[in-house]
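Blackboard transcription, Thursday session:
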Amino acid sequence: MTVLRWLLYPLLLVLGGGLGYVVLTLPQEATGLRDLAAGHLDASGVANPVTAVLLNFRGYDTLLEMAVLFVALLGLWSLGDSRPPRDPAPGPVLDTLTRLLAPVLLLVAAYLLWVGAHAPGGAFQAGSILGAAGVLMLLAGFSPPQALLGWPLRLTVAAGLLAFLAGGLLTLVAGARLLEYPAALAGGLIFFIEAAATAAIGVTLAALFLGGARPTGKDR
Amino acid sequence: MAPLTDPAWYFDALTALGLVALAWRLLACPDLFRAIVLFIAFGLLMALAWVRLEAPDVALAEAAIGAGVTGALLMAALARLPAAAGEDEADDAPEDEVPDHDRRARGPLPPPGGDGGPT
Amino acid sequence: MIATQLLYGLLGVALFALGVRGTLADGPFLRRVVAWNVAGAGLFLIFVAGAYGGAAGADPVPHALVLTGIVVAVSATALALALARRLKEAARDE
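(Written on the board underneath:)
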C-alpha cells in the first residue's frame, strides 16, 4: 500500500496527462461512423440511429452485454443468502408514493420500448425504468407471489439472452451472417428482441438490488 | 469557437463546475451516507450533461440507472454492511441486529448542510 | 461547438482522475466503489464528447456503446458490493 501511495500521483499524472492530450488533439470535425450509420438506417428496420446501432449494426455487442448482465446476477445468486434490504414497515408516504408511481413507471417503460424505434428510447432505457420501479416496490415492502419465483423468474432473467440467441440462430439458419436481419423483417425482429431484453434488464436490476440466493430471492 | 455571449456556454461551464465540485465533495466527505446522496445528485447532473452532448438516449438510461438504481444499491449495501462499509473500524457486532439500527440511524435525510448541490 | 466538446472532454478527464485517485487511495470499500463509478462516468463523458458533432449531429455508435457500458457498470457494482459483503461475513466467521 505504501508503494501504491508513492506511485499514485505519478500514475494519475500519466493517466490524466495522456487522456488530456488525447482530448485536446481530437479531430475537430470528425464524422466518425455517423454517415455510415445514417446511410444504412433504411435497412435497419428502425428510424432511431442509436437503436439501429444497438440492435442491428452492433447487435453482437448487445448480445454479449446481455450475457454480462446474466452472469453478474448468477454470480450474485451464487454468493448465498442475505436479508432483504428493507424496513419491515414502510411509512405511509413511501407506500402511497409507490402505489401511485409503480403503474406510471410501468407505462413509461412500455412507452420507451415502443418509441425506441424512431426516437430516443429503447430496451435499455425501458429496462432501467422497469428496474427502478422494481426497486421502489421492493423498498415499499411489496413481495411477489411465491409462484413467480421459480421458473418464471429464471426464464425472465434469461429472456433477453435467449431472444438474442434465437434471433442469431434464425439468421444463421436462413443463410445470413449472425444477427444479419433481412431488411423486411428487421423491424419486427428488433421489437421482439427488445421486448425480451427490456423484461430481462428490468427484472435483473431488481434482483441485483435484492441480492441473496435465488430461492429466497424475491422479485417483481 | 463559441462566443462568450452564448448563454449555453455558461450553462455548460456551470454544469461542469457542479460535476467536479460534487465529485470532489463525495470523495472527500467522511460520512458515507452523505457521499451516496452526493453520488445520486452527481448522476442527475450527468444526465443533464448527456442532454447537452446530444445524447438523449444515454441521458434517459443515466437518470434511471446512474441516479436511481446505483444509488439504491449503494444505500442497501450501506445498510446491510456497516462493517464492510468501514474497513478500518473493527465492527464485530452480529449482522442480524446491526443493519436495522444502522438503517434507522441513517434513515432520515442528511443533515441540512448547504453543500448538497453547488448549482 | 468545439468549445463544448473540449469542455466536456476535459471534464471527463478531471472526473476520471478524481475517481482513480479515490479508488486507489485508502478508505472504506463503499467509497472506493463510488469512486470507481465516478471514474467510469468520466470515461463515458470523454467517449461521448468525442462523438459530439454540433450542428451536423452526433455519432450514434459511441452513444450505443456508452449505453451498454452504463448497464454493465451497474451490474459490476452490484456484484462488487455482494462480494464485499461475502468477504466480510467470511472474515467474521473465522
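Lecturer's comment: Residues 56-80 of chain B form the longest helix (25 residues).
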